Amino acid sequence: MSELKTFAICSGLLLTAAISLTAHENISCKSPDGKFALRQTFNDINPIHGDTAIIETGTRKVAVQLHGDEPAGSEKLVWSKDSQRVASFRYDWQNGTTRVFFRNGATFGEIKIPEVPSPQLPDLPKPDASNSETIRRVEPIRWLESGDLLLESELQNKAGARAALQIMLGFEQGNQPMIRNSEKEKMSVLDFFLLLPPDTFEGPPSIWLNVMRANGEVIDKENGYMNCPGDGAQPEFELALFRYRDGRPLLALCFGELEGTDSVQLQFFELGADGRMQQISQPILPGAPIKNDPGMGYVKESWQFELPRKGCTILVRSEKTKKILHKFTWSGEKFVEQK
Questions:
Q1: E strands of 119-161, at which residues?
Q2: Are 133 and 73 members of one domain?
Q3: Phi and psi at residue 213, in whole multiples of 5°?
Q4: How far is CA 310 from CA 178, 202, 211, 225, 228, in A?
């Protein structure tokens, strides 16, 4: 899948996710008190161009213009619980930027945030001339009870390397911003997903990460789980991260059929010496009446695999009855079948 095609998919899915008011206007990201929201208005002539503003929901009056007529991107607002502070985020498929506003009656004043530190990319996998381009995004995660804003500063290249920092942005008297601390993120399911072989999907994993992020799909780094509904060329898929006792990753990837049943193909990957994930061809699931095919992984007619959203147990169900046929629980060294 070309990046242009995926951009169109991503933009289209994003636009339909919000509440459509007219053919060219979308309202989303309402404040907790319901008085403000994000409005995106799209160009009649070029529908992938538009402007964005925070508006009063009752009067439709613009409280603050975020940008003028620009190419459409992924945009969101992150509100504080009291609706007095808001962080706006815009990602244009090349860079992601955050702005911060404090409410003053029916308007918002922008607080210029300091330069946010960037993480250092890992040495592996090594990029070449075709995939060395880096993408940076600084994204607001949430407002804390203390009034501080948690940010994620991420750097990523097309070779699959990624690094991120958790940044705590505080505000002193007079709303003067300051960086309180930064902490390097540990590698998560998201990082190992990006390191999958580039031919695993219809398009590189980085493109599908953009799709998942733009459409609010599950990316649960804490519990090691991700899912994506796919599109007309890519079946739905989900991932779950297991770890060996020494910390090494074991990544499970479950596919559906393109125009058929979900979750019928299960593959496992481990981290290779080159810094990329490599498919495991030896048996992983004990006693299973099917083999782990070097290319396809585990596939059996009438079987469906269910990866854990939380926990360490993979379920095998009957496609017809949904009855559980097998339970495989990760011990930290191997899968053990539960009777």
A1: 134-143, 149-157
A2: no
A3: -65, -45
A4: 36, 27, 23, 8, 17
Could you identify the residue written with the tokens 């998560």?
A: 188
Helix (H), strand (E), coil (C) string for 223-286: CCEEEECCCCCCCCEEEEEEECCCCCEEEEEEECCCCCCCCCEEEEEEECCCCCEEECCCCCCC
**Which residues constitute the domain of residue 156?**
112-185
Boundary residue ending a domain (57, 75, 109): 109
- Does residue 316 share a domain with residue 263? yes
Measure the CA–CA gap between 120 and 154, rounded to whole angstroms. Answer: 9
pTM for this entry: 0.87
pLDDT tens, position by position, 49-93: 788 999 999 999 999 999 887 776 789 999 999 999 999 999 987
Residue with tokens 């782990």: 292
| Closest listed residue to residue 239, CA positions, set 276, 284, 191 | 191
Q: Which two tokens stand for residue 83?
A: 């609706």
* Local structure of 297: helix, strand or coil: strand
Q: What is the pLDDT of residues 183-200, one digit of tens each?
A: 999 999 999 999 999 999
Q: Cα–Cα distance between 172 and 179 in angstroms, integer?
A: 10
User: Beta strand pairing status for 237-243 and 225-228?
Assistant: antiparallel
Number of structural domains (the chain) is 3
